[in-house]
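[INFO] parsing input record for Bifunctional adenosylcobalamin biosynthesis protein
[DEBUG] input buffer:
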Amino acid sequence: MAPAPRALTLILGGARSGKSRFAEDLALRSGLARTYVATAQPFDDEMAERIAHHRERRDGGWTTVDAPSDLATALAASAGGTRIVLVDCLTLWLSNVMLAGRDVEAAIDELVTGVSLLTGPAILVSNEVGSGIVPENALGRAFRDHQGRLNQRVAAVADRVTLVVAGLPLDLKLPKEP
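[DEBUG] output buffer:
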């Protein structure tokens, strides 16, 4: 089988919007071998249940890579060839970066550079957090601002950007015609 061409898709949506399921369906329809790069960490029982639910929903055709913080490296190692990579999600990755006290802008730069250099198809899932109320504390506002900038930067290098609302996809950016 010939290597799959590079195609970067960003799937945005709010909490429980159906964005992860939509992204998984896209990966399945590609017909390629699938790698799921998970960024969640089970800090509590509720998050452990969410992670288990996501794992149960995927069939045995997925290879799972846990990458809560070093996402650029995990993507570089997983992408290319005849494989599609799905990252779920950039929002949890950003939370992990912030909680670790890392330089957020440097981490975003590294990630955006990394996804720009991918040689195979990838789907990145991220939450759209800018449509809600202004968070009441400084950490919440900083997170919202970083998330908005991260989404903008990834959208700029993505070939396709889709917003999922109530399980319905709305294409915001489509690949340019050759």
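[INFO] Strands lie at 8-13, 33-38, 62-66, 83-88, 122-127, 160-165, 168-173.
[INFO] shutting down worker
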